[in-house]
Structure formats: C-alpha cells, structure tokens
Specification:
- Helix 1 packs antiparallel against helix 5, helix 3 runs parallel beside helix 6 and helix 7 packs antiparallel against helix 8.
- The termini are far apart.
- The protein is globular.
- By secondary structure, it is mostly helical.
- The C terminus is likely disordered.
- It is found in: Cell membrane.
Length: 248
Amino acid sequence: MMMLGTMLMAFAFYHINYVNHLSEGGFVGLALLGSYIAGWPAALTSLLLDLPIILIAWYLMGRKYMYKALLGAISFSLFYEWCERYSPLVIDLHGSLLAAAIFSGILTGIGAGLVIRSGSATGGDDILAVIISQRSRFKIGTVFFLMDAVVLIVSLAFMPLKETLYTILAVWISGKLITLITQGSIQSHPKTETVPSVPYKQAIRNKVKISSNVQVVQPAPKPAKAILTNSQRSLTGVKGYPSSTGGS
C-alpha cells in the first residue's frame, strides 16, 4: 500500500505538476520550486528536507514509525527520479490547467491517503501533518491544506498567479481525498467497543432470565468440630478396669 501510494504521488508530481508548471505544497513544493529556479534535482532536495523531520518523528513517534517514514520518503524519491529520467510518457495539459489540477489532486490525494493509511509517510510534511492532527482537533486533510497553503504563498513570488491558483485547487482536492481515505481506515479498525446487535442482546436477556429462575442449592454446612475442655479430655482418656476389691 505504501509503495503504491508513493508511486502515484511521484507520477502526479512529475507528469502533471512539473510538466505543466504547476506548483505543489509541502516539501515537494519547495523541491519543485528549487528545480524551477535553480535547477536543483527535486528528488534529492525533497529527501534532504525530509531527513530532519524524520529524526524528530523518531523522538516523538517511535523507532518503528521512523523506519516506515524513512522508507516512504526514499521510495517517493526513487520513483520520482525514475519518472524524471526514464519515463517516456508526456502529459501536456497546458491548454486545460483545470484538468491538470483535478488529475493532480485526485492522484495525490489517493497516493498520500494510502501511504498514511499504511502507517507510513512520504516525507516531512506528512509527518508534521500527522503529528499536528493527533495533537489538535483538525482533520488531517485540513492540516495538509493549511501547510501547503503556506508554501504556495511563498511560491507566488516566483510562480505566475494562474498556475498557483490551479495548484491551490489541486491541493484542496487532495486534502479532501486524504481525509476521506484516512477516515475509512479508522472506521475499519475501531478502537471503541461496538454495541451488541439486537439478537445478541435478546440472548443475554434470556440467559439472565433463566439464571434468575434457577434455585441455587447451598451446600450443607460441615459439622463443627467438638471443642473439649481439659477435664473432658482427661475423662475420655480414662478406661474402665476392674478394681482390686472386686468392684467394677
């Protein structure tokens, strides 16, 4: 599930966002921004931004989650690098950025939702979103959207307004799908006890009713041990012997 999710996200970020000059939120958005401006490799930049947050996850959420998050971040970077180097597919949607935003939001939301549902993360922004969501009342999709919005505001200084607005639409769609998929995971593994069904309740009532009509027979008390005084003990120890005078 984690590998499929990271593959979908890498596919969407390169073939739709990068090719059609859409931005992205989170650390991936910063990596794409560095690729647009300075030509930095987006896969390596994203992984370097993720490493400090993964170390924080080790401290806050345990070693097991840190290993899963590290595996997810490395998988995403490798899939993105493969798409950038070897994929022959070209998805040109410059004439319809609305379609690009919708496809990007759907693929990104499904991919990120699968990764989070598997108990992993694709990067540092995912880890921060999970931590903030667990320690607040915000849904995880809302946290994703707010964090991505900060990066998109920064992108306005370097990206055209039109592409940034369509990117916000893609981020909003992905946030809704992430919330939907992760809520389904929680509902499929409820932590609280479920209410018994009606037949089960009726069976319990019948069992209680039968048990109330049964008369419980108390066991007979054990006979109490006789307590003898010292004089009684001395008399019980005396046996009858014929006397020397012929009396009994």
